[in-house]
Amino acid sequence: MYYNENMALEKKLRSKQKNGLKVLSLFSGIGGIDLGFHLAGFDIVATLDFDPKTCKTLEANKGGWISKDTKVVEGDITKIKPSELYDGKVDFIVGGPPCQSFSAIGRRAGGAMGTKDMRGGLFEHYCRLLNHYKPKGFLFENVRGILYANKGKDWERVLEAFGDLGYKLKFRILDAAGFGVAQHRERVILVGYKDNEFLFPRPTHGPDSIANRDFETTKEAFKGLEKPSENKLEMNGGKYDHLLKDVPPGMNYLFYTEKMGHKNPQFAWRSKFSDFLYKANPDTPTKTLVAKMGRYSGPFHWENRRLSISELKRLQGFPDDFEITGSRTQQIQQIGNSVVPPMAYSLALAVSKSLFGLKNQVELLSDDEILYIDRRKGEKAARTRQKTKSNHKNKSQLGLFAQNTQKIDRSLKTRKLPEMGYLSYDNGKITFSETQLPNSWQMNISNGGSKVSVDLSKQRKNKKYMDDNLELIIDFKDEVLPIDSVAIVMSTVSPNRVYALWDSLNYIIQKISSYPSIHELYGHFTEPNPQFNLTAKSTIETDPYIALFLWTANLKRVNELHRLEELNNLGLQFDSERELVTKLRQMRFDIRTNLTNKQIPEGMFRICYPYTLPHNRRSFVTIQKS
User: Which of 33, 246, 341, 496 has the fewest Cβ atoms nearer than 10 Å?
Assistant: First the structure.
């Protein structure tokens, strides 16, 4: 592995290679940037981080991979005084403020707040300390998403803030795989300087390297590691554990989509994060490691297990004997939040060579060179398009439903809805004591099994209610299911039971296909790809709950911004926006407002899905505290 082969040598020689330049590290994490600069001969005089776990890791490595003289400071950058951090001359400052406000995960969790999030504004305190120490230069690292947050305005604000301090600025997107680790990890690197002219380091691996040296592969990265002895690395007992074994190396949950030609699709296209069920390919670098891994967050090993901490350290470019403290979950988070040391090492050499005039072997890029990273995404998208079902002229070769090979279970003709709670509704006010829905319902299959009709209307003695109906018609696209449509009718005498339409639909989908709910046929709200059309109508629209049901079932309204007054116009009266958001979420409507995402203007809201979320799937986006 490049890191172990080359940087281990630097560890032995670093005492003879000190360049006398003092570096202050902010937002240090476990010292990924620090390690790279330290091995390049810089003196890390002090590190600052808010997290006690990462500070404990830094302390554990002092005297080894971190200088015993480095001052580790656990503190809040918004409150820290320079005298508490380091009292002396500083030549260079490095740091990468928390990236969650700009990350892809942050965007898909509800829209990236960018600098409107407190974490997104921490760069201002970076500037405060930069202005105090007035070094010759600085390095700022963050995720690629910072360039696009709030339509680019956040990045303009960052550049303006640093530029106002008198620094010339250059930035590039660099991929960690280009610097000898088996992980594609794209990061924005901004360098500010006052003298000379900074040039970025040339990648040492990949198409941009001088010798066109191959990227490090995952298999090469793991070479020499013993078989992991950590517990709970095997996958068994979970909802999707059994799916992992069939996912080809280098693929993820998309393997189980109709678009990829799977016989029994489990997910809709782009309905999950790209790391969901992602299995590493031994012959290529992996996707980006993340800090918070769910049960199905990859990369998984091609042997169908979770990766060990030792393997994750290799992928991130940390030495084998670099100690990371805490539980497995805490170690994964520290690794995923860190900067790749080998990339930091090359950057440090570029800084010492171009800004401080020191001699070393690093190759530098000219400002006008375009890197492979700027072409890779387009090439990857083209390869994906080649694999998808849409490029196959003969669909029957894919074993899909073209010949209706999957039969409907005729025993579904009469079913009771599974027992589950529904909200009470009394005289126009919604209350939240859960009650059981007693209705039985009928499935009547006609037209050779291509259409399903469901009657949720209970036989009642009082005939006057029977004319008040709510109807939902779902037409599916492109043979995504072995039926063309489902029509559901229920009595609207009990508006609180409108849930039953969506719950019964999900029950049908489970029984006639491999999809668990309509959610997988819609996709994530930031990238919806609905495989159906909706028609909803009612004989009465004055009831606020039914009015909301009809309003959200319009695909054109979903995920657009609307004024909160529109909900009032539907008859939904609440004492406060907080009560509105809280209760609609209890009703399984995934509503977002300024209370859940500061990027949404005050007084506006967004409904993320045209349906109420499945009964066992609630929204977990945090409602901001008062």
Answer: 246
Q: Please indicate, yes or no, whether residues 147 and 73 belong to a single structural domain of this protein.
A: yes
Instruction: Identify whether 99 is a catalytic site residue.
Output: yes
Inter-residue contact 110 to 623 (CB < 8 Å): no
Sign (positive or negative) of CA dihedral 375, 377, 381, 384: positive
> Residue holding tokens 């492109």?
478
Range of the domain at 204: 2-221+319-371
Side-chain-side CA neighbours of residue 477 (13 Å): 12
Query: What is the CB-side half-sphere exposure of residue 5 using CA atoms within 13 A?
Result: 9
Is there a domain that residue 156 lies in?
A: yes
Burial class (CB in 10 A: 0-12, 13-18, 19+), 623: middle
Distance CA 375, CA 437 (A): 55
**Cβ density class 223-258: b for 16+ within 10 Å, e for less:** eeeeebeeeebebeeeebeebbeebebbbbbbbbbb
| Segment among 110-119, 424-433, 525-534 with least mean pLDDT | 424-433
Half-sphere exposure of residue 74, counting CA atoms within 13 Å on the CB side? 10
Q: Is the pLDDT of residue 62 over 50?
A: yes
In single-letter form, the type of residue at position 545 comes to: Y
Strand positions, DSSP E, 355-466: 414-416, 421-426, 429-436, 440-446, 451-455
Q: Return the H-helix or E-strand segment holding 352.
A: helix 341-354
> Does residue 9 register a pLDDT over 60?
no
Overall domain count for the chain? 3
117 plus 196 within the same structural domain:
yes
Q: Which run of H or of E encompasses 162?
A: helix 153-163
Q: Which residues touch 327 (CB under 8 Å, ≥6 apart)?
A: none
Q: Rounded to an integer, what distance in angstroms lies between the CA atom of residue 326 and that of residue 336?
A: 14
* 569 and 422 within one domain: yes
DSSP secondary structure, 422-437, as one string: EEEEETTEEEEEEEE-
Instruction: Name the residue among 291, 245, 278, 235 with its Cα closest to residue 30.
Output: 291
Q: How far apart are alpha carbons 176 and 165 in whole angstroms?
A: 29
Whole-number pLDDT of residue 463: 47
Pairing of strands 300-301, 186-193: unpaired
Same domain for 289 and 326, yes or no, is: no
Q: Domain containing 199 — which CATH number?
A: 3.40.50.150
What per-residue confidence (pLDDT) applies to 493?
54
Bridge-based pairing state of the strands 562-563 and 168-175: unpaired
Enclosing H/E stretch for 337:
helix 328-337
Beta strands in 514-558 (DSSP E): 532-538
Query: Roughly what angle, to the nearest 10 degrees, separates helices 32-39 and 341-354?
Result: 50
Query: Which pLDDT value is given to residue 381?
Result: 59
Q: What's the rounded Cα separation, in Å, for the pair 434 and 431?
A: 9
What's the alpha-carbon Rg for the chain, to the nearest Å? 28
Residue 478 lies in a domain: yes
Q: What is the pLDDT of residue 496?
A: 56
The DSSP annotation for 166-233 comes to T-EEEEEEEEGGGGT-SB--EEEEEEEESSS---PBPPSSSTTSTT-PPPPPHHHHTTTPPPP--SS-
User: Cα–Cα distances in Å, from 200 out to 10, 141, 561?
Assistant: 21, 13, 41
Locate the DSSP E strands across 57-199. Answer: 71-74, 92-95, 137-143, 168-175, 186-193
- 549 with 514, same domain: the answer is yes
